[in-house]
Structure formats: C-alpha cells, structure tokens
# Entry
Amino acid sequence: MILPSHLSVRGGHLYIGEHDTVALAERFGTPLYVTSEDRVRENFRRLSGALSAHYGKVRVLYAAKANGNLAIFRTLASMGAGSDVFSAGEVALALAAGMRPELLLFNGSSKSPADLALAVEKGIRVSVDSPDELRQLDRAAGAAGRTVDIAFRVNPAIDVPTHPKIATGLATSKFGIPAEEILGTYREALAAEHVNPVGVHCHIGSQILAVEPFAREVDVLIDLAADLLDIGVDLSFIDIGGGLGIPYRRETDRAPTPEEYAGAVMPVFLEGIRDLGIEPELWVEPGRWLVADSTVLLSRVNSVKTAHKTFANVDAGFNLLIRPTMYDSYHEVVAANRADAPAVREYSIAGPICETGDVLAKDRMLPELAAGDIVAMLDAGAYGFAMSSQYNSRPRCAEVLLAGEKAALMRRAETIDDLTAPMATPPWQE
Ligand SMILES: *Cc1c(COP(=O)(O)O)cnc(C)c1O
# Structure
C-alpha cells in the first residue's frame, strides 16, 4: 500500500513518525485515536503555502467540525490559522486555543438567538444564511449597541462529484441563499443599521477529488462580486469554503494536490479581482485536508469468525468512526502488528455495536488475523472522533497526540462514570 510519508512499516509494525503503533496500543489501550501533530503542521504549511504563492492576502480558516480536540486547535492556531465555527462550543475552543475573534467566521443555517448574541459579544464575523437571520442579527447587534461584519452564504447551485450527504452547494441544499435572491439580501443588509456586509461565503461540499468544481465556484463568486460592487458593497473578503478531498483509497484514488487546487482556483480569482479593481482577502476553510491523514484509529481484534464471510471483530465500531456506516466511506486497513505479512484472506472489520451496519471495512485482503492483533484504520483524523458517540453505552476512547519523539494524551478515555454523570433521577424514582 502507498503510505503517506509519516507512516511506515518497521520490523513488521506500523509506525507513525518514530512511534510504533503496537506499543502505543499497549501503553494507552484500545480503541485509540493517534494523531501526528507534525503531519497537521506539514499539511497546513503545504496548503497555505500553495495558495499564498499566488496571492499575499490568503487566510486559512480551519473547519472546526472536522476534529474538535483543543490540541488540534492549538496546533493550527500556532500556525496562524483562524477557524470556520458552527457552534458556541467551536467558538469557545477556537478562542481557548488563542485564535483571535477576527480570524473566525460563524457559520450555519440554523443559528439560535444565543449564537447570534455570542457572535455580537465576541466581535466574530457571521456568515448569514437567510434574510430572517439577517434581521435577527441586526436586532441583536442593535440591542448591544454594536455593528457586526457579515458575509452571506451563497448557494451557487453547483453539482459536485461527491457523496450526496456532503454535497452542500446543490440548488436543493439547506445551505445558503439562492442566487436569484442574493442581491436583494445584500441590499437589505446595506440598508440595515447594525450589520455591515463585507464578504461573500460559499462552500460547495466535501471530499471533492476534482479541482474544476472549485474553479467554477470562484467564477460564480467573482460574477457576484461584480454585481455587489455595482450596488455599493465594499468587499473585504471572498470565502470559497473547504472541500478538498484526500485519497482514502490509497491504491487507486487520484486526489488533487494543494498546488493543483491553487493552480485551478487562483488564476480565476486573480483575474476576476483584477478586472474588478478590488483586492479582497481570499479565505479558505479546509477541514478534512488538514487533519484526515494525520490520524489512525487503532483497535484490537476480539475474535475472528467465519460465517458467510470472515469477520475480524474489533473493539472500535461506528460509535467511534461512523463514516463507513453513514457515507459508505472507505478507510484503508493495516494489520498493525503484522504489517509486512502477506495478505492471505479477505476480512470484514466489524465493530462491537448491536447493528448490522457496524462494519468499518468490507472484504479486505489482509494477513491472517487472530484475537489480540491490532488493526489500524488510516485517515481517521477528520470526521472521526468528532462524530463519535456513546451509542450502546460505550464510553468514548482516548486520543493521543504525537510530536517528534513525544506522545501524550490529548483526551483521556471516558469511563462508565462519564456515561452516568449527566443523568438525573426524576424525583418519583428516588
Ligand atoms: C464542513 C465545512 C468545511 C470543511 O469541509 P472539508 O471538506 O472538511 O474541507 C468548510 N466550510 C464549511 C462551511 C463547512 O460546512
């Protein structure tokens, strides 16, 4: 298998950087998420560098939902990243990690009054998703005696080649304001007293393995910017969202490099703004690309069973990695303690959850597996732990962060007490 450069096989074991994953599984227990901080830094430098090579005014806003561990926020904050945030929790994490409020964009199609008040209070720009939200935000800002800088989330009606659940720029999506209504909405914002329309925002979807949809998206945004200029909007940023995909099928997927992405997007952007005579910042919101390949999910084989096919039953299920169940996603599987043994048998990797759909990987040729072996699911750093749950009353597992020779918990494993702690006894049951 073609491994990313921070993964290797030494003495039959899978390594992340200088760390033996089998030793990490022994030391910290399984299931276990293990993240390379060095890889997150390398990814950030690569993507940000590819875009900045074309234009000096690029800002990278990490899409917080991909991986919500505070240690990941700290890593990215230290590199100068801002964050695309969707909730009060994500705001709190980004600020706790040291990101300045002006480097955040508060997104979402269903913000509560408390969300809007928080954005006003902290001075965070808001990507407004409807005229209704615009009016609410204007009132909230007015009540606080403030003015809020905003963008509108534009629905570009672009079809992208990805899983339907993560295509967000379709005309039928719940996100964004339809193209035919967008100018009217900006006009309303220009007339409003306590909001200041300074940006446009778009995000066409996730895990996109072609660059052409991004170039089309930028083209749509530049056309819109021209209309906005005409009605008197002074644009300080154009936010093209995230969505760049990664090669989960490491043998066969062809994923665009950041340089190819920048090479497709930046000329359209630069020519567009030059023609308009404006110099707005370009914002991007990568989530997956920054963190997905930094992380493996380690699990231990509990038992092996041959029924209509052969199952390796492991201790991690869709409670910890729901992508295969939810999006039919593919993650490469490595037998971490037999990583150089020949692949001799087809296994499906099944979790401990009481659901037929709890299969992390289907029909993979792997070395002979036995109880006690360690199985690694690759590319688990985005929408992995972040989408985990306590389903089947299973405490969530620990997360370990690696940096050079160092390894430490960035989240302890939950205990049974963590499951029951928030529960309350209704008085009639006492
Ligand atoms: C999820 C999301 C992103 C990140 O998407 P990736 O595919 O992880 O890069 C960026 N912007 C918005 C608005 C999102 O909802």
In short: The chain has a mean pLDDT of 96. Residues 63, 65-66, 84, 107, 203, 206-207, 241-244, 285-289, 382 surround pyridoxal-5'-phosphate (CB under 6 Å). The two ends are 57 Å apart (CA to CA). The chain has twelve helices and 21 strands.
